Amino acid sequence: MKKVVLSGMRPSGPLHLGHWVGALSNWVRFQDEYECFFEIATWHALTSEYQNAKEIKQWISDIILDWLSVGLAPEKCVMFNQSEVKEHSELHLLLSMIIPVPWLERVPTYKDQQQQISNRDLNTYGFLGYPVLQTSDIIIYKAELVPVGEDQVSHVELAREIVRRFNNFYGYVFPEPEAYLTPIPRLLGTDGRKMSKSYGNAIYLKDSSEEIEGKILPMVTDPKRKRKTDPGEPEDCPVFDYHKAFSNREEIDWVMNGCRSAGIGCIDCKKVLIKNLNEFLNPVRERRLKFSIKPDLVYQILLEGASRARERAKITMEEVRERIGIR
Questions:
Q1: Distance separating alpha carbons of residues 224 and 222, to the nearest angstrom
Q2: How far is CA 200 from CA 53, 185, 195, 215, in A?
């Protein structure tokens, strides 16, 4: 039996390189090794975008195109829209009955996002309960591995606690999921902060070669390198993280040695990165174009994915109702 993998992304805009490094690179590999369920987390998007709900439909189209463009294949994995599988919401409701509120208030992203995203009111029950819904998403397929970004590890750890509490009350139903990180779990944005659409510092998978150059050249670098003749430390430079993700070993060594010895300038370093990013993104752009001209095919992929996900979720919910005693 293959291990089950569940992961998802909120439809809150086009996907960026941080999504690739933090999760999608794993997804593409995992679809050949495990039984994979990948959800477009529509309800999760509403926790912060409830005032822009009408835009979510377009964002769903953006995210499935991005998934297909990086190489996810419907014959290898299940891709679906979360809101088409109502069993997620039922399990979320049942789990919310047993979760102490302090467990949710201590999640690091709860207060962090309230501070960082000041242009939205996030003092809602839905935003506080976000990790419980996320737990429902994971365990309804009895997933054992959850490829996530570094900022979501605390959510998976909470999911493990929720599973233990549920199994303790009602008997064993769910395995405890484990978070899986890439070697480079987080890629900073062009301004040195976390890469995010909300911060306006993201490099998107659909960006053109001109847009890539326009975003990379002005990027912040090691503050010690005020002039080309100043030696720097690559590990203190956000651009170097991009090299670790998209450059080969020889180029990485060239950047490290050249930066520390002041043998190369920041522009030299960035030009190599721009070349490598475009080499990575060119086939992504080609696949995106291929699918974008076939909207009916893309829609059918989501419909069939929801049907397959629903079939599995229904089996789990039958067992949950039986265990709780409300069947």
A1: 5
A2: 20, 20, 8, 11
Statement: residue 13 has pLDDT above 80: yes
Q: How far apart are CA 131 and CA 44, in angstroms?
A: 9
How many Å apart are CA 106 and CA 102, to the nearest integer? 6
β-partners of residue 263 are: none
Cα dist from 1 to 4, 33, 34, 35, 309, whole Å:
9, 11, 9, 9, 18
Q: Do the beta carbons of residue 86 and residue 35 sit within 8 Å?
A: no
CA distances from 119 to 116, 190, 199 (A): 9, 21, 11
Q: Residue 79 is encoded by which pair of tokens?
A: 């891709």
* Whether 172 contacts 163, CB under 8 Å: no
**CA triple 26-28-33, angle to 5 deg:** 85
103: helix, strand or coil: helix
**Residues 96 and 136 sit within 8 Å (Cβ to Cβ):** no
As to burial, measured by CB atoms within 10 angstroms (0-12 exposed, 13-18 middle, 19+ buried), residue 271 is middle
Q: Nearest to residue 50, comparing CAs of 10, 14, 84, 99?
A: 10
Rounded to an integer, what distance in angstroms lies between the CA atom of residue 146 and that of residue 152?
10
What is the pTM (predicted TM-score) of this model?
0.90
What average pLDDT does the structure give for the chain? Answer: 93
71-128 pLDDT, tens per residue?
Answer: 999 999 999 999 999 999 999 999 999 999 999 988 887 766 666 666 677 888 888 8
Picking from 103, 196, 205, the residue whose alpha carbon sits closest to that of residue 149 is 196
Buried b vs exposed e over 143-160: b needs ≥16 C-beta within 10 Å? bbbbbbbebbbbbbbbbb
- How confident is the model at residue 116, as a pLDDT? 63
Report how far residue 21's alpha carbon sits from residue 181's, in angstroms, rounded to the nearest whole number: 10
Q: CA neighbours within 13 Å on the CB side: how many for 101?
A: 2
Start-end of H helices in the chain: 17-19, 25-30, 42-49, 56-70, 87-96, 101-105, 108-116, 125-128, 130-139, 153-170, 209-216, 238-246, 249-260, 266-292, 295-324
Average pLDDT on 56-76 reads 95
